[in-house]
Design goal:
alpha+beta; disordered C terminus; 46% helix; five-stranded mixed β-sheet; two-stranded antiparallel ribbon
Length: 214
């Protein structure tokens, strides 16, 4: 429809009215995200969801992910804060994929947190793993829904269009591909916290050392 509007407009109006172009761009971006999600699910089901791992600074990943969602949080009057342990070591990870994981979790938190709420993104070392978490003050998740959260295409409210139902399944696949673990804790009416772990570089070095001895 926006393309049709542009084609019918005289050239001088096309140069000043950018709203149809913005609509087209947003639609293309949504379609691109959906296609990428479908490709990731296909790779996940085929056992080919790969990650290109290397040393990545934990603080940079957390800050970059938070900044991607800062404007939306402010628009909804939601306080978005980050908390990074002072002794947070680098992680052995695919940086782009970790930001994708955090972005999916932050996007969900923003979707289900009402205006005036709070979202906190944390990162802290636990042994040789880095534990990330995204906490919100949203409506929480019913206990009976928790076992299904990471299933592809599953949604808690079938009548409400809250996305494709692919995000959390992809998140779990990416965490698993890194050798980590993901879980959620939630209290209806209070909020939810999604946790996941990623190996640190020290764990990768230990694994390489054991491999060399063998």
């Amino acid at each position: 429809m926006s393309t049709g509007v542009l084609l019918r407009c005289p050239p001088e109006k096309r140069a000043t009215d950018t709203k149809p172009l913005e609509t087209i761009r947003n639609a293309v971006n949504r379609a691109t995200r959906l296609i990428q999600d479908l490709l990731d699910v296909a790779r996940l089901e085929a056992g080919r969801l790969s990650v290109d791992r290397g040393a990545e600074q934990t603080a940079r990943l957390v800050k970059d992910a938070a900044e991607l969602h800062r404007a939306l949080a402010e628009a909804k009057s939601i306080q978005l804060t980050i908390a990074i342990a002072d002794n947070a070591p680098p992680v052995f990870a695919d940086g782009d994929r970790v930001i994708q994981i955090l972005s999916n979790l932050l996007g969900n938190a923003l979707k289900f947190t009402p205006g005036g709420g709070q979202i906190t993104l944390r990162a802290e070392p636990v042994g040789q793993m880095m534990r990330f978490s995204v906490s919100d003050t949203g409506s929480g998740i019913p206990e009976e829904d928790l076992p299904h959260l990471f299933e592809p295409f599953w949604q808690a409210h079938a009548g409400r269009k809250q996305g494709t139902g692919l995000g959390l399944a992809i998140v779990k696949g990416l965490v698993d591909a890194h050798g980590g673990h993901i879980w959620v804790e939630s209290s209806p009416g209070v909020g939810s916290t999604f946790f996941f772990t990623i190996p640190t570089t020290s764990m990768a070095e230990t694994a390489d050392s054991v491999s060399m001895r063998w």
